[in-house]
Specification:
The complex is a heterodimer of chains A (266) and B (259).
Chain A: H1 7-31, H2 35-55, H3 59-79, H4 84-105, H5 113-118, H6 126-145, H7 147-155, H8 157-162, H9 167-189, H10 194-206, H11 212-237, H12 241-265
Helix pairs in contact in A: 1-6, 1-9, 1-10, 1-11, 2-3, 2-4, 2-9, 2-10, 3-4, 3-9, 6-9, 7-9, 10-11, 10-12, 11-12
Chain B: E1 2-13, E2 16-27, E3 31-35, H1 42-49, E4 57-62, E5 68-71, H2 85-89, H3 97-106, H4 123-135, E6 141-145, H5 153-170, E7 173-178, H6 181-185, E8 190-194, E9 198-202, H7 204-209, H8 211-217, E10 248-249
Parallel strand pairs in B: 3-7, 3-8, 5-6, 6-7, 9-10
Antiparallel strand pairs in B: 1-2, 1-4, 8-9
The chains are: A mainly alpha (266), B alpha/beta (259).
């Protein structure tokens, strides 16, 4: 496809691909109040990058393994009733700090750490694009498959249990989806802003939606729109692309919130 | 026909025994109420009977394929989760619009409530919606965990009348938990008085006259919750094996020969 020869087209498609995964997953992150959970998993990705660079593994593989380990740790601690706010805060920032320290130890490092912190969406290649869409479709498919069970377990775990749903298994599904999203989105928005890509479009979608399904779909749309807007801003004003995407998403959120408030008054 | 049976059930939470040697059963079409003061393990017993919390010892048997309709104590919904009533009634299994309308009607709610958000309902409406959801797909047993918390007394009385009606119509068994006996008792076939172990059980009249029950809940003001501990309650030390549970069965509940 000749369109894929254009780096801007690839960047746009990469951002839209990430939105397909972060839209529905972000809705659950908001409903289950897992915002910090997302942060901790995303920050762990930097440690994954260090691991990959040190061992010669592909970066996506290293990220996936470490993000999965972090997500499983946090999920396990949550299940045992730890005071999550503090624990997550410690884990999240420790993962980031250790990751950055570890990266500095990698000998002969030719890559820019900034690219992993803030993403490098304009450098997305054809191969990256394939992985991003593969991962995003896997995440969206996983969530669509478990949708009703996830929703029931999110509303009330006892209710889910009585209906024959194991809330622990549904938590595991989300944990797995989160690790996949981190691996997929690292190149696009970077470790520091993955959680923002989960939360901001979904929060903006809340003002539009009257059903959970509508909210998840609207979050995908808003994420895609923010990608296109952010890229346009980045090209026009020469701003960093990843942060520009999140900034546009935040502006969409504020605008939709204002519109919703005005409509309620009217 | 036995729907759920527990024998010698022990449940531990963080090492301490919350339930100690509990025998319990509920039959088809029966209304059983579990009463007991705060912290007596009522909700834990319910959750153990449903398999939500594991038994540390003893066993729980549910009839194979038992369809349970569960009404939780409360439903804390994040305001960021948009959830219309009709969608909620379709969780986790999709239900037709006709089924949803029939369920709302059954619990005395208008069909147009289906489009309202759960977070916009009053406490009484939410309780009825939770009940409507539990009734979806005709369960063989309804399980209610202090379902009337937050309702005023007339609201509570109306709710329990509704439960009785539903049992009369559908023949489903009802298992409920309450700390407020006055309202629940009249509707029950059998009352189990719990305080870590089964203190006494029988028909409502028999239980309300039992000395164990009176020790727990006071003499004069039936239903008023007395918070002092059970006078026979020496036996809660988990390190004391095989103690007498004061498991009394008083006469007058001949339709449940629970030896």
């Amino acid at each position: 496809m000749p369109i894929l020869d254009d780096f801007i087209a690839r960047a746009a498609l990469a951002g839209i691909g990430v939105s397909v995964a972060t839209g529905p997953l972000g809705a659950f992150v908001i409903w289950r109040r897992m915002a910090y959970f997302g942060d901790a998993t995303a920050h762990a990705a930097i440690l994954g990058v260090a691991l990959a660079l040190a061992t010669g593994l592909p970066v996506a593989a290293g990220t996936l393994v470490v993000a999965l380990a972090m997500a499983a740790t946090v999920s396990g601690l949550a299940g045992r009733g730890w005071a999550m706010d503090t624990t997550l805060g410690v884990l999240s920032h420790a993962a980031l700090a250790f990751g950055l320290v570890a990266v500095s130890f990698v000998p002969g490092l030719r890559v820019d750490v900034q690219a992993f912190l803030f993403g490098d969406i304009l450098a997305v290649g054809r191969g990256d694009l394939g992985w991003i869409w593969l991962g995003a479709v896997a995440v969206a498919g996983l969530i669509a498959w478990r949708w009703s069970a996830l929703l029931t377990a999110t509303l009330n775990e006892d209710l889910a249990h009585a209906a024959g749903i194991d809330p622990g298994r549904e938590r595991l599904v989300l944990t797995l989806a989160l690790a996949l999203v981190v691996a997929v989105a690292l190149k696009v928005v970077g470790a520091l802003l993955i959680a923002a890509m989960l939360i901001v479009p979904a929060a903006a979608a809340r003002t539009l939606a009257r059903t959970p399904e509508a909210m998840a779909l609207a979050a995908v749309g808003i994420g895609a729109l923010a990608t296109l807007g952010g890229l346009a801003v980045s090209l026009r004003f020469d701003t960093p692309a990843g942060p520009s995407v999140i900034a546009v998403a935040a502006i969409l959120f504020a605008g939709l919130l204002a519109v919703a408030a005005l409509r309620r008054k009217a | 026909m036995r729907l759920i049976t527990a024998r010698g059930l022990v449940v531990r939470m963080g090492g301490a025994a919350v339930l100690q040697g509990v025998d319990f059963h509920i039959d088809k079409g029966e209304i059983v109420t579990i009463v007991g003061p705060n912290g007596s393990g009522k909700s834990t017993l319910l959750r153990a009977l449903l398999g939500i919390v594991p038994a540390a010892a003893g066993r729980v048997d549910r009839r194979a394929g038992l369809h349970v309709g569960y009404v939780p104590q409360k439903l804390a919904i994040d305001r960021n989760l948009p959830m219309p009533v009709a969608r909620f009634l379709s969780l986790p299994r999709r239900r037709s619009a006709a089924e949803v309308a029939a369920a709302l009607d059954r619990v005395g709610l208008a069909p147009d409530l289906g489009t309202r958000q759960l977070t916009d309902l009053s406490g009484g409406q939410l309780q009825r919606v939770l009940l409507a959801r539990a009734l979806m797909g005709a369960p063989e047993i309804l399980v209610l965990d202090e379902a009337t918390q937050g309702l005023d007394q007339p609201g509570e009385a109306a709710f329990y009348r509704l439960i009785e009606e539903i049992r009369a119509d559908s023949g489903c068994a009802v298992l409920m938990v309450s700390h407020d006996l006055h309202v629940v008792m009249a509707a029950s076939d059998r009352v189990v008085c719990l305080n870590g172990h089964v203190c006494c059980e029988g028909t409502p009249r028999v239980v309300s006259n039992a000395p164990e029950y009176r020790a727990l809940f006071g003499l004069g003001t039936q239903g008023a919750l007395a918070l002092y501990r059970h006078e026979h309650d020496h036996a809660h030390d988990p390190g004391e094996p095989g103690h007498d549970h004061h498991h009394h069965h008083h006469g007058g509940h001949d339709h449940h020969a629970h030896s």
